[in-house]
Amino acid sequence: MQQSYFVHKKRAAVLRNTDSMMRRLLEVEVTRGRAAELSEKELTDLTVQVTELFLQDNACLDVDLHEPLYILGDIFGQYGDLLHIFEELGFPPQTRYLLLGNYVDRGHNSIEVLAFLFIYKMKFPNHIYMLRGNHECEFVSCQYGFLGECNKRYSKHLWRVFMNAFDCLPAVAIVENCILCVHSGLIPCLEKFSLTSLAKLRLFIMDLIRRPVSLTNNFLLTQLTWSEPSIDSRGWSRNPVGLGLNFGENVVDTFCQIFDLQMVIRGHDLLEKGYEFSANDRLLTIFTAPNMSGQFHNLGALVHLYRTSESPVEICGQIKVIKPSSKLTRGLCFYQPLVIEDSLSSRYVDQNAHFKQTHDFSKLSKTERRKNGTNILSVTK
């Protein structure tokens, strides 16, 4: 009883401090790249509390569309871009978000990205959901910048606090029982596990991913965060990266048929146009961070899902493309504002069809998609 009182008191104190932390995160200089003035104790206390919230979410999330939902792919420490997206689309609780992982590394402001998302998770836990990406682990984040950022600004201890939080992140989200959202891959050897329904899939994921869990020590989590689609191929094959597997387009079709899913939405791959459909349009890959690391001239993309109000109810999906603004900016010269525009890829989902087109989106063949610049860009994972 006494212990529960002190836990509640601690959480309330952290929650009260989130407004002060957010004010510092929203300072103009911080949005343009300067480090936010947040203490290590504040970040530690916030992360410890939000870790408990991650554990209250199932490893396999169920997300409905009683309110519209925005799905974001990789952010990679680009805090200014993440903030601009929220400014354009709305902050929780007015807007709901599902993020597919890879919050840290590569960019210079991974700590700000995490602090921003963790604060909103603390304040509005049912309006922001975070999945685990392959960079949310010790093995990768110690090589691609996040450990270095923590060491330079704070300490290795803070990095370990973040790693503990990552070990508790959910792995998969299922939207309205018809769209699977995951960082990267699918589950091999379905026939061996006798998975024949969505209910069994949920139980299987929650049984095998018991958090906290190290990513590299969990077979299923490794597949979900590392395995990748292989265009124009069939079946499963070795992933040359060394972790996870490659899966062919027929694997996506089979997976969707078994679990009565309309499609799969994933992140993980850097794309020139920010998104790509494959596997007979049952697989949608999105990458949200535009101009990644300032080294790639890629657009970003995100997905807007919502239900229609008329009967029969339909699930609509629209891709929004993120690109740098052509307007001149004031202040720090390296910050470039963004423009978020609707793509022509606006479709709906119902019980009989997957993401059907609703206006002038014309299906492109694989050859045409490559010709129009939706190729995967070469980047080390």
From TrEMBL:
It is an enzyme of class 3 (hydrolase). Residues 131-136 form the Serine/threonine specific protein phosphatases domain. It catalyses: O-phospho-L-threonyl-[protein] + H2O = L-threonyl-[protein] + phosphate; O-phospho-L-seryl-[protein] + H2O = L-seryl-[protein] + phosphate. GO terms for cellular component: cytoplasm; nucleus. One of its GO terms (molecular function) is protein serine/threonine phosphatase activity. Keywords: Hydrolase, Manganese, Metal-binding, Protein phosphatase. Its EC number is 3.1.3.16. InterPro entries: Calcineurin-like_PHP, Metallo-depent_PP-like, PP1_catalytic_subunit, Ser/Thr-sp_prot-phosphatase. Its cofactor is Mn(2+). It holds the Pfam family Metallophos. Belongs to the PPP phosphatase family. PANTHER family: SERINE/THREONINE PROTEIN PHOSPHATASE (PTHR11668), SERINE_THREONINE-PROTEIN PHOSPHATASE (PTHR11668:SF300). This is Serine/threonine-protein phosphatase. It comes from Fasciolopsis buskii.
